[in-house]
Each structure stands twice: as structure tokens, then as C-alpha cells.
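Your task:
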Amino acid sequence: MADAEQIVVVSTPFVPGYRIVKVLGMVWGTVVRSRGIGYQVVAGLRSLAGGEINEFTDMLNNARQHAVERMRAEAASLGANAVIAAAFDSSELGQSLSEVLAYGTAVVIEPEGGSSQPVYLT
């Protein structure tokens, strides 16, 4: 079993230079974060002037990274060494909660001798 940190994660349906030898199924990692009162006050003040709200950007980037770490851990627990077709989704839960979901297909890959080909999941 691969260490979670060594799991290859790609948004494509294949890993160039590797062939898929086993499909293990869908994996995901979910994180729900609360936007505390401090974030909301700062965001409210910054939204008056317009532009990016760096505090929320940082919070969402950290949540995405945490979701990917959880997805990698789930893939490793299945015996995968890669996750293909990885993507993110996010939603609001109430007025102060944000959910971030990272998901993809856990697979076992091995180096191939020829050129890589896409894998079409049916």
C-alpha cells in the first residue's frame, strides 16, 4: 500500500507514461469550515471597497488542501497509488459554513513502455 503523501493525483482520466492495472472506485475527502466572526467582520469591511477578500481565499485554499489529503488517505487505504479524474466541489451550509469536497477515482498504475492513452470509464 502506498503512503498517502505518495499518491499521484491528476485531473485527467490517465497518468501519462503509466497504465492503469486496476480501478478501485471513487474516493473523496470532505472538509467543512466555519467562517468565524473575525473573518466575517474583515470580509464585510473589505467587501465595501471591492476586490479580493484574502482571508476567505486563504481559508478555501487550506480547505482544498485538507480535502485532497483526506482523499489521498482514502485512496491509500484501498491500496491505490493514484487518483485520476480528480475534481473539487464546494457549497455553503448555512450562513457561515463552507464545505469543500475533493473526489476522484482510485486506481493502481504502473509504468508503461509505450505512449499513454486515455481511459474511458463507462
In short: Residues 105 and 111 are 18 Å apart (CA to CA). Residues 4-111 form a domain with the Translation Initiation Factor IF3 fold (CATH 3.30.110.70). The mean pLDDT is 85.
